[in-house]
Predict the 3D structure of the following.
Amino acid sequence: MSWPTRAELAAKAAQMTRDPVTGEVAAIRYVGVYKAFGTHEVLKGLSVSIPRGKITAIIGRSGTGKSVTIKHVMGLLRPDQGQVWVGDDELAAMSDRKLRTVRNRFGLVFQNAALFDSMSVFDNIAFPLREHTRMRRAELQAKVRDMLALVGVHHAEDKLPSELSGGMRKRVGLARALVRDPEFLLYDEPTTGLDPILTAAIDELVVHTHHARPGLTSVVISHDMAAVLRIADKVVMLVDGVLAHEGTPDYFHASTDPLVVQFLTGSLHGPMKV
Ligand SMILES: Nc1ncnc2c1ncn2[C@@H]1O[C@H](COP(=O)(O)OP(=O)(O)OP(=O)(O)O)[C@@H](O)[C@H]1O
Ligand SMILES: [Mg+2]
């Protein structure tokens, strides 16, 4: 098999400047991305766009490479082949310095909240500001408290992560991801492990946060199909390392494709085997 050249990939990227599902500008483009770990091929030529200013959900079975996909966009992983574009910039062509500035445009809410255990809630949220800005104390305090209020944990600023419930930790993780006003907010399974009421509350928060920040591009990886179909503008379904389906929630609701039907209904019967 011969790989496409950089110029061929760039030409394909140029054809993907508009997201086909929403008609919006493509803020992120994956163009023929391959990624393997040893002999285990995870992404096998993924091409897909993420529309600017919208909520995009990525769905697919455990181990299909959803987390791997979003790690590429921040340069946390590099493709073996193919290109990842953020706006008009292709990541592999970037200097480390430029890559850092691109990373700074992203907020990431991890699969497990990944807070610093020895730091208070306040300090966890303040950390990115202390690391990356020279914000004065009063301004920093105001900013952190704004974030705490936005995610509804203003009463917990002096607590340690170990003193919080799972749902509160997720909220603190979200506040930390938001504190530097990112252009992109990536959520990796923000509701996994939460009870149904908290799950609904976090889903609400994703939508609320999205609409509170004009221009924010949100990407949510989730196994919660009901929530995905309720909150997303665009849904991307990955199967076997490639894009299997992309569309609006209505498209997925109406689909009769056995893969989609089986996944959405969580049926044991269909093309996907346990
Ligand atoms: N750094 C790594 N080194 C080796 N293998 C990895 C690495 N990161 C991911 N993988 C493998 O790549 C595959 C895809 O992983 P990924 O975490 O993207 O799955 P996922 O779709 O997010 O699954 P889940 O829904 O369970 O979170 C898995 O088989 C995983 O073991
Ligand atoms: Mg994952």
Q: What stands out?
A: Residues 195 and 229 are 19 Å apart (CA to CA).
